[in-house]
Design goal:
The complex is a heterodimer of chains A (304) and B (652). Chain A is an all-alpha fold and 304 residues long. Chain A has helices spanning 2-29, 39-49, 60-78, 94-114, 119-150, 155-159, 172-189, 208-211, 217-242, 249-272, 281-303; one strand at 52-55. Chain A has one domain. Chain A has eleven helices and one strand. In chain A, helix 3 packs parallel to helix 9 (217-242) and helix 7 (172-189) runs antiparallel to helix 9. The longest helix of chain A is centred in the middle third of the chain and has 32 residues, at 119-150. Chain A starts with a helix and ends with a helix. In chain A, 60% of the residues are buried. With 652 residues, chain B is mostly helical. Chain B has helices at residues 2-20, 25-52, 75-98, 105-127, 131-149, 156-187, 200-218, 227-233, 236-246, 248-261, 266-288, 293-320, 324-359, 370-373, 375-388, 395-411, 415-447, 464-482, 485-496, 508-538, 565-575, 606-625, 634-651; strands spanning 57-63, 67-73, 544-547, 582-585, 600-603. In chain B, the strands form two sheets. A two-stranded antiparallel ribbon of chain B has the order 1-2. In chain B, strands 4-5 form a two-stranded antiparallel sheet. In chain B, a hairpin with a 3-residue loop joins strand 1 and strand 2 (67-73). Classes of the chains: A mainly alpha (304), B mainly alpha (652). At the A-B interface, strand 1, helix 3, helix 4, helix 5 and helix 9 of A face helix 15, helix 16, helix 17, helix 20 and strand 3 of B.
């Protein structure tokens, strides 16, 4: 239990660090030196020191947005086995709770954006409401596959201890599909290129960044921390899928290596691909559903 | 049973007194509201205790010395009665101030009279235990609700809605009659008990007929066409009751027939599940495209009926494939969702009623920023929206959670059951995402931002009875969401009364699930409190200023520039274009000095679109050919009757 809590705290504390890796990779591809690896901590500290400016149009829902989005992100981390260790809480069906809790976070992020009466934020909100619908279908398709493999419906059964799910197990081949599908979900849910460009300059082309335009100071820090934690959540799962080994301290090392691989992959993806046209994005996200579906069909044979 | 009849009597007295006292509107209204809500409260207390202690009751009367009327309360009836009495109680209280703006005494008193009849008939439908009693109550229910739908009969649109409802409820009733006719033909008795002796093919026919009949009441796609017309036409407390509980009598009918037929073919489960999934997804897609707040909520009823049917379908598949845990999870999830939906849907209709009451507009794109002046309405509406989107820690999540777990049990099966379970899970996931999109649209456009028209400015919220009802319902959403144990237990009691060889359903795993939901919800709330504390720590002594919304450099924004509900939904609707064709009217801007332009859009419901060409037109054609029978000569009409009697003498 203590161990789990320590890992949970570590996850929250190191999440900003890992996100900086993406920036470093992008800078490397651009032939630049890039910001220091602790840049996100500096940003958070700077934001926490500031005050805030609120729009005249906003209500208390606007202030609730950052709180709920951070809370959902750190609560779902409590259910996630980190580096193969048992999570703080776990029960049969916890994954459904986790997915719907993330939905709650999304609801409030969108509601906070709509609260500002800004047309740009409305546009971002509409996109934020749209793409995750397909992601959710993919996630549940992957869950169906995992359920066929393990007969369980909880995160700890998939990713902790002697893992039954991973690239190097007997069902590794279809798992390759799952890894790619999940990586696409990771990119979509966390507003990365090629779905969304967090570094663009034009508000019209953003999804997540435009929704939080009006947040400032500590509120914005909460949002940033929440999105670091969310990215960490997805990356942990992918990392566990590609390196499903549980070897004590070396296992922890392998897990961190896995995390590095995922974050570097995100960085490389952002460096070599441009953002898709908005109407092409659904096709990209649907690819993940097709992959997950095929993986399930293929696995039907493996189990027999 | 006597307690039940006493409560029915009190409600009925309330309805009659309002007619008698129609000269004194205020008094009539107060007496009616008091009496009806007292009756509902009495019934609610009685039914809940009966349900929790598993007490069942029965009673029988002779009517006209020929027909026997018999009633029975078992777990299933008691569960539906709980929803009926609870929602009607709050809707009655709500109606007290809602009816303030209407001056016509006849309309108000007639409204309460038919309203009391509607409540009674719904209660009798779910307690009826033979065919005659059932159909009698069913017809009273359809007729009384018809009169409530045409409450504002001065508007042609409402009369059309009423007509459509009348046609659908009676075509539906014809199917039920046909099914009951088949049953009577085989068994020769009006009792409910003898249905299991039917041959298999008759059972399948009966199930399909009753599914169409009850489905048209429940609003199952494609029999839902009346629903989005009738719900906006009725006054809001009536919409709350109709959408919250009346359409659920259709679900009750399907469950009751399934139980009585006692025939566990996978076919039934597959039919129910497929129709449920289609209703669920299409219901919410059409809801997204609506511009009328109450119409949007009506389409969400189609969606939620879909979710309930997915649950029941999973339950039926569980029974037919011999998987009791899956069966109980599916059924109890579906049945619990009946109660949950009745709570949050009536809450949302009441909120929409308040908006309509104060702004006079149901058009989503004409509103905006209402939460600033309508704090309680806005907050309770957001809670209702979270609940209907199935998000924790609110009640919508609990029912869906059970259905999900049940569906996943089906994933371990083979062949059809496996494919159907996948279908159920993916549909539920898509429905969840779409519902979230739809309700962020409603909350974002109606309650947030800035008022888009004059109507939405300077509103207030008055009417303590309306606010009280909404607060109680919002509280119920939260309580069931955090502490679902008792409610899951109630739904399990209802399931175990279905027979199905599941009489000894172990409650322990469900108790475990309930406590898991409770714990995780509480953990989340603790985290929220902690983060709020942290946030206020960081804001201590900070400079917090107010300013305009960041317009990306543009300094003269107007309220017209806000994102509208139509544009919000357009991305998603584009994806569903094949099933939800969008009709747009938008003259292009041309020339150097362009004319003023406009934009109008309408999402077509494919069921409604094709009903005219596929069903209505051929029928009209056929009956046009038979018009010569209706010649208007009374002598020949008497001749028809004689002829019919003589012919019947040969057959009987």
């Amino acid at each position: 239990m203590i161990e789990s809590i320590v890992f949970w705290l570590l996850a929250i504390l190191t999440a900003p660090f890992f996100s900086a890796i993406i920036l470093k990779i992008k800078a490397f591809f651009g032939g630049k030196k890039g910001p220091p690896l602790l840049i996100n901590y500096y940003t958070l500290i700077k934001l926490f020191k500031k005050g805030s400016v609120y729009s005249n149009s906003t209500t208390s829902v606007f202030k609730l947005g950052p709180i709920i989005s951070l809370c959902t992100a750190i609560t779902v981390l409590m259910f996630l086995p980190i580096a193969g260790h048992d999570p703080i809480f776990s029960f049969n069906g916890d994954i459904i709770f986790v997915l719907y809790l993330m939905g709650l976070g999304r609801f409030f992020t969108i509601a906070a954006a709509m609260d500002t009466a800004s047309p740009f934020e409305g546009m971002g909100a509409a996109r934020e409401a749209y793409f995750p619908i397909i992601c959710e279908a993919t996630t549940f398709m992957i869950l169906i596959l995992f359920f066929r493999l393990t007969g369980e419906l909880q995160l700890s059964a998939y990713f902790s201890g002697e893992s039954t799910i991973g690239l190097w197990n007997s069902t590794g081949a279809p798992m390759l599909f799952v890894v790619i599908a999940f990586f696409i979900i990771l990119l979509t849910e966390n507003s990365r290129v090629p779905v969304d460009d967090p570094a663009t300059h034009l508000e019209l082309t953003m999804i997540h960044e435009v929704m939080v335009l009006d947040h400032s100071g500590p509120d914005f820090a909460l949002i940033e921390l929440g999105s670091f934690c969310k990215l960490f959540f997805y990356s942990t799962i992918v990392s566990r899928l590609i390196l499903p080994f549980d070897l004590g301290v070396p296992g922890l090392g392998l897990f961190v290596v896995g995390l590095f691989i995922v974050y570097i992959a995100v960085g490389v993806t952002e460096s070599v691909i441009a953002r898709y046209r908005m109407d092409k994005v659904p096709q990209f996200v649907l690819t993940s559903f097709a992959l997950a579906f095929f993986a399930t069909i293929i696995t039907l044979e493996f189990i027999k | 049973m006597s307690q039940f009849f006493i409560s029915i009597l009190i409600i009925l007295i309330g309805g009659f007194l309002s007619l008698v006292l129609s000269q004194h509107v205020k008094l009539a209204k107060s007496v009616a509201v008091f009496s009806i809500s007292a009756g509902c409260l009495w019934g609610l207390i009685d039914v809940v205790t009966k349900l929790l202690q598993s007490v069942s009751g029965a009673a029988a009367f002779k009517f006209l010395n020929v027909f026997s009327l018999s009633f029975q309360i078992d777990g299933l009836s008691a569960f539906f009665l709980t929803a009926i009495f609870a929602i009607c109680l709050l809707a009655t209280i709500y109606s007290f101030h809602y009816m303030d703006h209407d001056q016509s005494s006849v309309k108000i008193t007639a409204n309460y009279f038919f309203y009391s009849l509607l409540i009674i008939s719904m209660a009798l439908v779910v307690t009826a235990s033979n065919i005659i009693t059932f159909m009698l109550s069913w017809e009273i229910m359809s007729l009384s609700s018809f009169f409530l739908v045409i409450y504002n009969h001065h508007s042609a649109e409402n009369r059309k809605a009423g007509f459509l409802y009348f046609v659908f409820s009676h075509v539906g009733a014809m199917f039920i009659f046909a099914a009951f006719g088949i049953i009577y033909g085989y068994t020769g008795s009006f009792g409910f008990g003898s249905m299991e002796s039917l041959p298999e093919i008759a059972k399948i026919l009966v199930f399909i007929f009753t599914f169409i009949g009850f489905g048209s009441k429940a609003g199952v796609f494609p029999f839902h066409i009346w629903l989005p017309h009738a719900h906006p036409a009725a006054p809001s407390h009536i919409s709350a009751v109709m959408s919250g509980v009346m359409i659920k009598t259709g679900i009750y009918g399907i469950l009751r027939i399934y139980m009585l037929l006692d025939f566990h073919t996978p076919l039934f489960g597959n039919i129910v599940l497929v129709f449920g999934a289609i209703s669920g997804v299409l219901g919410v897609v059409y809801a997204l495209g609506q511009h009328d707040l109450k119409r949007l909520l009506a389409y969400h009823s189609v969606e939620n009926i879909g979710i309930i049917l997915i649950g029941l379908g999973i339950g039926m598949i569980g029974v037919s494939s011999g998987n009791p845990l899956m069966a109980v999870l599916g059924f109890s999830g579906g049945i619990l969702h009946v109660l949950n939906h009745s709570i949050f849907k009536s809450l949302l209709f009441m909120g929409a009623g308040m908006v309509l009451h104060k702004t006079g507009s149901r058009s989503i794109d004409a509103l905006g920023g209402l939460i600033k002046s309508m704090k309680i309405t806005g907050t309770t509406f957001i809670i209702g929206s979270l609940a209907i989107s199935g998000l924790p820690p609110f009640n919508g999540f609990v029912g869906e959670f059970l259905i999900y777990i049940g569906s996943f049990k089906g994933v371990a099966l083979e062949n059809w059951a496996f494919a159907m379970s996948i279908f159920a899970i993916i549909s539920l996931a898509v429905i969840g995402g779409l519902a979230l999109a739809c309700f962020t649209k409603v909350v974002g456009v109606v309650f947030q931002g800035e008022p888009r028209t004059k109507a939405a400015e300077n509103v207030d919220e008055k009417g303590s009875t309306m606010l009280t009802s909404m607060i109680i319902l919002a509280g119920a959403c939260t309580i069931i969401g955090i502490f679902p144990s008792v409610f899951i237990q109630m739904s399990i009691k209802a399931v175990s009364s279905l027979g199905l060889g599941l009489s000894s359903v172990p409650f322990a795993p469900f108790e475990q699930m309930a406590s898991n939901i409770t714990h995780s919800a509480l953990i989340f709330l603790v985290v929220v409190l902690f983060v709020i504390a942290v946030r206020s720590f960081f804001y201590r002594g900070k400079i917090v200023t107010k300013s305009g919304t960041w317009g990306c450099g543009f300094t003269q924004p107007t309220v017209k520039m806000q994102y509208t509900g139509s544009s919000y939904a357009s991305f998603i609707l584009d994806f569903f274009k094949p099933v939800a064709p969008l009709e747009e009217d938008h003259p292009k801007i041309t020339g150097r000095f362009p004319e003023k332009t406009h934009y109008k859009s309408h999402v077509n419901d494919i069921a409604e679109l094709h009903m005219g060409t596929i069903i209505v037109r051929p029928i009209l054609f056929l009956f046009d050919k038979l018009r010569w029978i209706q010649h208007g000569d009374i002598h020949l009409y008497i001749g028809y009757i004689l002829l019919a009697i003589v012919l019947l003498l040969f057959f009987i």
